[in-house]
Amino acid sequence: MSSPEIASLSWGQMKVKGCSTTYKDCKVWPGGSRTWDWRETGTNHSPGVQPADLEEVVKKGVKTVVIGRGMSEALQVPASTVDYLKKNGIDVLVLQTEKAVEQYNTLAAQGVKVGGVFHSTC
Fold first, then answer.
1. CB-CB contact of 112 with 2 (8 Å)
2. What family does the database annotate (predicted)?
3. In 3-state terms, what secondary structure has residue 45?
């Protein structure tokens, strides 16, 4: 099962190929995607992305996770979150969202089992 291409990104809107939903923030993994609802884990810009935000993606068997910090990189990614991924043997890229989507799509096109979480505003 391959990771779906992120078809488009603009401020506050993301589209994933093969999915009719327009996301504000989204999670993607080999074979799927869904809304990333920060309320599920109590995530805020600071302290930022928590391991709980990534558990679902990790459980899909990804080898790499790409984290999009937002257009202005307002979303923080604590060292403990990066450590969580590394301890699970997963490579991690933390980037501004436009760059993150570009890297994610490149990896997905190469057949890498890649997942990601992306914030499409600030």
1. no
2. Belongs to the AAMDC family.
3. coil
